[in-house]
Design a protein that fits this description.
About 25% of the residues lie in helices and about 30% in strands. With about 325 residues, it is α+β, with helices and mostly antiparallel strands. The chain has one domain.
């Protein structure tokens, strides 16, 4: 366990482990008021999402650098600050994947529901999947690149891994004030820096996340930052309902990041036309974590910048 400051935020890191929410609660060295909140109303715990897409968010300078380089590289200033030799991606959960996860969750509770019970069951996850892990906004910039994980791995494998597939490993769990970040590292087989880190699980299990056939499965344990609703399971009627909670309750939320190992000078090349198809403008969420010289833009400003860049590059 290691505690340090990052972007003016205190964080506690556990290298080589993906510690569950229960593990973190029981850890004697952790003092976190959000994690220890005992008044959290009932909510859908351990919902498994099968996620096929990932996103990388950046500011205007990062956007221009990506198109200038025709691909992704670690910014030199981050390498100088010992941020790790990575380019960072987050899971991009779609509405269809939320719907599928909800169906699996309900089926696990009630394996033998009738057609009428299935038809009359109201949606539940939309009331709880409100953390930044499920939002279009991002704290890291106004420009979001979204790829299927399978496509991104193909580019990475073709350029850096020779005739072998990239390796997935459990890299770390990072606990911030109100966030749990599970990091997966992806690297070529001949890079030995991560030999002491365990391989990422493939088949679904009780682990936090894993990779199987082009998709990440993620067992989300805390889908909200603020709980304003509570879950009620009626086993007799085989139905789950959602009702307002008497008071807002703040809690930690969890998400998964994928860190692609990049050697000095490496650029993960992607055709510019494809880059334009994969990028869109988005709003910046609070707290803004953009690094200088970038500043927060409105959605309208970001959209104009993206349109102007396409004109310049064409």
């Amino acid at each position: 366990m290691m505690t340090q400051k990052a972007r003016d935020c205190e964080r506690t890191t556990f290298e080589g482990y993906h510690l569950s929410l229960a593990d973190l609660k029981e850890h004697p060295g952790i003092d976190n008021k959000y994690l220890s909140n005992k008044n959290i109303p009932a909510y859908p715990e351990s919902v498994v999402f099968n996620v096929q897409k990932v996103s990388h968010v950046t500011g205007e300078s990062g956007l221009r650098a990506i198109f200038f380089n025709s691909g992704f590289r670690q910014p030199p200033e981050l390498a100088a600050n010992a941020q790790g030799p990575f380019i960072w991606w987050s899971l991009a959960v779609t509405s269809d994947e939320i719907y599928s996860a909800e169906e699996h969750f309900l089926t696990s509770l009630f394996p033998r529901r009738t057609y009428a019970q299935i038809y009359n069951q109201p949606s539940i996850l939309e009331h709880f999947t409100s953390s930044k892990a499920f939002q279009e906004k991002s704290a890291y910039g106004n420009f979001r690149f979204t790829f299927s994980l399978k496509e991104l791995l193909w580019h990475y494998g073709m350029q850096f891994c020779g005739d072998r597939s990239p390796v997935f490993r459990v890299y770390e769990t990072v606990l911030y004030k109100q966030k749990i970040q599970y990091t997966v590292v992806v690297h070529p087989h001949y890079i030995n820096l991560y030999d002491d880190f365990p391989r990422l699980p493939r088949r679904q299990s009780d682990d936090v996340c894993g990779y199987y056939k082009g998709a990440m499965w993620w067992r989300c344990q805390a889908p909200s930052e603020v709980y304003m609703n509570k879950l009620k399971v009626n086993r007799f009627r085989r139905r789950v309902d959602v009702s307002p909670h008497y008071k807002e309750q703040y809690y930690v939320w969890d998400h998964v990041c994928i860190a692609f190992h990049m050697e000095p000078g490496w650029v993960l090349h992607v055709n510019r036309n494809k880059l334009f198809k994969r990028v869109n403008a988005c709003e910046v969420s609070y707290p803004c974590l953009l690094r200088p010289p970038d500043t927060q833009l409105s959605l309208k400003e970001a959209t104009h910048i993206l349109a102007d860049l396409k004109t310049e590059m064409c």
